[in-house]
User: What shape does this take?
Amino acid sequence: MKILATTNAPFEFEPPAGVEVVPVDEREPVPAEHLDADAAILVGGRTRVADQLAAEASGLRWVQTLAAGPDGVLAAGFGPGVTITNGRGLHTYTVAETALALTLAGILRLPGMLAAQREHRWAYEEYGTWRALHPTGRLGSLIDTDVLVWGFGAIGEQVARLFTAVGARVRGIATTAGERGGFEVFTDADLPRLLPATDVLVMVLPHDDSTRHALDADRMALLPDHAWVVNVGRGTTIDNDALAAALNAGELGGAALDVADPEPYPADGPLWDARNCILVPHVAGGVAHGSDELINDNLARLGSGEPLRNVVPR
Assistant: This one.
């Protein structure tokens, strides 16, 4: 068996005996002698290699992406004979820790302190004096707050565990209600009741037609004016223009965003200068933690005819 393996992202994979691994740079065409590959490990974006394999690799049976969201690979147009599996589970811990880090950075006002540091200014009177746990009109801590995690899969559960560990009360939103990992989980139908009581809304939704602008101006208006919106899912799930307007109007406490729409986010986009907005360039999921186990398990399943893990429906 021959597997093409991307060199555009670090990951762990120790192939078993009898498997030939051919490194490929996704920015360059695959040499003709390797278009007979049985499988490919790709980052997950729309690349020259993804397009070429979809068009020319007639014997390809399986594409494994390192990304949890394989939108670009799907757009390449692989035929029905190619099974596409994603990297769901590889980014659970890094995305969850980023969600917590962004939230704490916002509510503890770290951007302001960093600005003071750049000015060589000891801003104790602004940030260091005695204060209430939750000063009037804003959050000062995650202790004793109500956090709602919208998108309660593996990442959402890990987000819930981390936020609980620092003193928050956490509930989730998913497609089906119930209890997961000890947390109460509701559905979209409960949002009108839950959003007004939410201090921090953490978005972990994937990109698809049903989630586009899931958080729109009407739903934002249900949040308290001290609430923070944190997005570590996909930028398309929030109406970002409406978010910028709500922030600037003082209708939200702040936003901490790992993602935007579009990406790269344009230099004249309103989020850059929106009030109390932290915007970072989609950095949360850049570690494929556990890739060796996932890839080798799927490789064994491919050989035995068993269903693969993380199959992307098409």
